[in-house]
Each structure stands twice: as structure tokens, then as C-alpha cells.
Amino acid sequence: MIDKSKPVLVTGATGFVAGWLVKELLDNGITVHAAVRDPKNKKKVAHLDELAKNSKGEIKYFASDLLKEGSYAEAMEDCELVYHTASPFITNYNDPQKDLIDPAVKGTANVLETAKNTPSVKRVVVTSSCAAIYTDAIDTHNAPGGRITEEVWNTTASLDYQPYSYSKLLAEKKAWEIQKSQNQWDLVTINPSLVVGPPLNANAVTSATFDFMKQIGDGTLKMGAPRLGIGMVDVRDVAKAHYNAGFMPEAQGRYITSAHSTNLLEMGQILSEEYGNYPLPKRPMPKWLLMLVGPMANKLFTRKFIKNNVDIEWKADNSKIKRELGIEFRPQKESLNDAFQVMIDEGLIAAK
């Protein structure tokens, strides 16, 4: 059992998922050791200070750097539970090795090697991704039983094709490798699909999630959206999954954390019910047309990507997390509407 009177470390504490996890911990009266790049940047941590002020818990900041060995040692002192959420989720990168692979893999190694040298640590929860399990929607059909489970590992991503997925695969593999090299603490991984929902820090949204949402709502796709098969989950449910994975003694292994199988067109159509005065997509963009214009419009939309993801339903088995961690997922409409409303409030999207 994790002692709730001891501090809990959260790496990347200013992140999208991490913010809601910090809230969950503070609301339960826990002292959070928040590892952030620059604790003096008051703008970045203001929302966390606000959460702490209105909760039973307390927050302490520690300067840390994913690529600097030993920089998490002070923050980890006395912690029995470590949440490693820090990892880049960006679609705009110049050098995939430097911008994606190194921070993900070296960062994971840095945090978990520090855990090996910190006698108090009993459990580490790593934020992985469904991207460590699959690359393209077609992979979910090719998995045993026609859907991905926790037993499946990504075998189709590479440095040249979908390097973000490759970074998540390598980082999670590194985590399990380090876990097997010791017997002091156990490891649990949370593997979310596309995380949507309201950010707690709307001014500092850097997650690629919001690039997706912005394109759906700003008119980019008003002529039609591809039925791009993806999984989706609410950020608040992902935070709850992390919390339960940390404190439930029976939590073990990997957890697919995904509520819905959806696509870009369906997301636009759901939002249209509430936000009909915004330039949302209402009709599908044909696959053949995407094959023609996609590669010119977006470097991610290669013909291979289009072939393997458009008009292909995303399929995953989320029964393990429901059964073992007691997670009940929010409706898709609630997650999308809450996220969209924040983007409107922040002036990121305007009515037509």
C-alpha cells in the first residue's frame, strides 16, 4: 500500500494530463512534488498554485530536466509513488531523434534510474500511449482477435514513419527494461489514445491534441473531414486512471486507456449539434481526394498514412482498465464540447 501521508512526485507537472492528475492528488490531501523545468516561471505554474489553494493538499516545486541525469533526485526524496508524465507530444518537429526520441527515451531512463537509487520508491506509473501498441488504424485490425490489447506491441513505426509512435514504443520498452533490473518497485503504464477535454491551463496548451481540435473548428476542414480512425479519451478519465493505478495495490502491467473509437468527421458532427454556428465539417472527404491533396497539405498525410488510417475503424479492448481500475468513461460529446468551449473562450476559434 502507498502511504498517502508521503509526498508523490509528478514529472512534467504543467502538462495537459499532469494538471488534472495533480488536481486529483491535491483534492485527496496529498503533498505533490511537482517537477517542472522552471519553477520560477509563475505563469506556467499559476494554475497549479490555484489548485493547491483550493484543496486539502499542498504543492512543492522542483527544477528538473528530462535530459539531465540525476535532476529528479531531490524531487523524488521520501516519495513512495512516482508519476512520470513528462514526454513531448508534438507534430511540428525538425529532427525526430532530437525532438522526440531522445527526450522520451532518455527522460524515462533518467527518472526510472533515479527511482532505482531512491530507497523510498515502491511504485512508478509511466504515462505511455496507445502509440506504443499500434501505429496505424489498420494495425488494430491486424492484431490478434481484430483489436489491440495490452499484449500487443507496436511493430510498424520507425524513425522515418510515425516517429512519435516510435518514441512512445522505445520509451515504454526502456521503462520495462529498467523495471526488470530491480525488485524494489513495481511499474504500471497508462496507455491513452487521443486525449481530449478541457485544459486546466488554457494559456499554455502545447499538446498536439489542440491542433486536432483547432483544425476541426477553425474552418480548415469545413469542405470535408477524413474518416481518420482514432481512439479518444477524456483527460479527466486519464487522470483518474493514473490516480487509481498509483494507489490500488492490485494495479499491474499496462492499461489501454481509451473510451471511444471515432474519426475526425464524427468529432465534427458531434460538435455541430451544440456549435452549429462554427465552420465544422459535416461531410466526409473522399479517400481518393485525400490521396491527391493530402501529401501537399500536410507532411504527416503521406499516401501510406492515408491508406492505413482513412475509412478504417480503430479497434481496441478497454475491458482491463474497467475491470481492474474501475474506470468509467465519459461520453464523447461531453469531452469534445468541454474542450471546444475552452478554445472558444480563449479566442482560438471564432464563429463563422
From TrEMBL:
Pfam families: Epimerase. Keywords: Oxidoreductase. It comes from the Bacteria. The keyword Thylakoid does not apply. Residues 8-244 form the NAD-dependent epimerase/dehydratase domain. Coiled coil: none annotated. One of its GO terms (molecular function) is oxidoreductase activity, acting on the CH-OH group of donors, NAD or NADP as acceptor. InterPro entries: Epimerase_deHydtase, NAD(P)-bd_dom_sf, NAD(P)_dehydrat-like. Gene3D superfamilies: NAD(P)-binding Rossmann-like Domain. This is NAD-dependent epimerase/dehydratase family protein.
